Amino acid sequence: MGAEEVRLVSWNVNGLRAVWKKDFLESMERLGADVLMVQETKLQEPQLTPEMTAVNDSKAHWSFSTVKKGYSGVGAWTKTDPAAVRHGIGMPEFDDEGRILELEYDKFTLFNVYFPNGQQSDERLDYKLRFYDAFFAYANALKDKGRPVVICGDVNTAHNEIDLRHPKANAKRSGFLPVEREWLDRILSMGYVDTFRHLYPEEEKYSWWSYRFNARKSNAGWRIDYFYVSRDILDNGWIKGAWIDNDTFGSDHCPIGLDLVIP
DNA sequence: CGTAATACG
Question: Is the dihedral of CA A39, A209, A32, A132 positive or negative?
Answer without folding.
Answer: negative
